[in-house]
Amino acid sequence: MTEIFGVPTQALFGQLLIGLINGSFYALLSLGLAVIFGLLNIINFAHGAQYMLGAFTAYLLLNKLGVGYWWSLLITPFIVGATGVVIERLLLSRLYQLDHLYGLLLTFGLALIIQGLFRNEFGSSGQPYAIPPQLVGGQNLGFMFLPNYRGWIIAASLVVCLSTWYVIERTKLGSYLRAATENPQLVQAFGVNVPRMITLTYGFGVGLAALAGVMAAPVYQVSPQMGSDLIIIVFAVVVIGGMGSIMGSILTGFGLGLIEGLTKVFYPEASSTVIFIIMAIVLLVRPAGLFGTQK
């Protein structure tokens, strides 16, 4: 059996694949957080609960209405994003002139409420969600076996992340969004409805979390705890990449997933803490994050 640095090739590439899959979810979730913080200055601690809502919405659509994975992938972000729109209009819009801490506390409370309601209804154990038939099986690449669904997750998350970056950084809509965070009065003078734009931006960030939840359902099962288990790591990813940095969140999410996978191979004892060790080092050297700008 071929070895690299004393590690069997199959084991090494298998862990790298797991790292890429985790990194795909880190990137999608941190991207949603970066969009919300970068454009609204809200630290959305409910993001993990909204990710869980996406998985549960797909689960309920399948079991109650017979709606399969592909339609759920399209419908769920709009359903959960609509709940985000309601939250922004009724609650968050009242906090924009206050310290960031108030938004964090509000969204943290919302996360606890949402998770508590679903835990009371469904219990703490995970609910299975089947891989779509079109993506069952895998490909033998010689040096490793690549399950089709895992490959789909990596490819789809890359497309979504890069498309979001392009819209925000390279289009007229994105320039309006960025300008609205700096000078909303000026943007409104050009006939742009800034409050509506802010509301839809929050809904879009929540929709990204829901999309990640649907994609994660066949891999991790559907559980009320799935968001709380992930959100702390995702916040660490956002801090390392730079709060509000779109490309920073994407690159850091995938990169840290790979680092976590390699750590599981070469030093498993540190695999659960390596991301936080990196965060501490980055904050010491560059407090604004790797891709953030110091204000």
Write a compact overview of the structure shown:
This protein is mainly α and 295 residues long. The chain is built from eleven helices and four strands; from the N terminus they run ββααααββααααααα.
Task: Characterise the protein shown here.
The longest helix has 32 residues, at 9-40. This protein has eleven helices and four strands, in the order ββααααββααααααα. It has one domain (14-93, 148-285). The N and C termini lie far apart (53 Å). The protein has 295 residues and is mainly alpha-helical. It is globular. The strands form two sheets. It has a two-stranded antiparallel sheet. Strands 3-4 form a two-stranded antiparallel ribbon. The mean pLDDT is 90.
Topology readout:
Layout: E1 3-4, E2 7-8, H1 9-40, H2 47-65, H3 69-90, H4 100-122, E3 138-140, E4 145-147, H5 148-170, H6 172-182, H7 184-189, H8 194-220, H9 228-241, H10 246-266, H11 274-285
Antiparallel strand pairs: 1-2, 3-4
The unreliable regions are none
Radius of gyration of CA atoms, rounded to a whole number: 19 Å
State the end-to-end distance: 53 Å
Number of strands: 4
Secondary-structure element pattern, one letter each: EEHHHHEEHHHHHHH
Structural class: mainly alpha
The rough form would be described as globular
How many separate domains? 1
Would you tell me the overall average pLDDT? 90
Indicate the percent of residues in helices.
over 70%
List the total number of helices.
Answer: 11
**Could you give the order of strands across the largest sheet?**
1-2
Described by strand count, sense and barrel closure, the largest sheet is: 2 strands, antiparallel
Strand content: under 5%
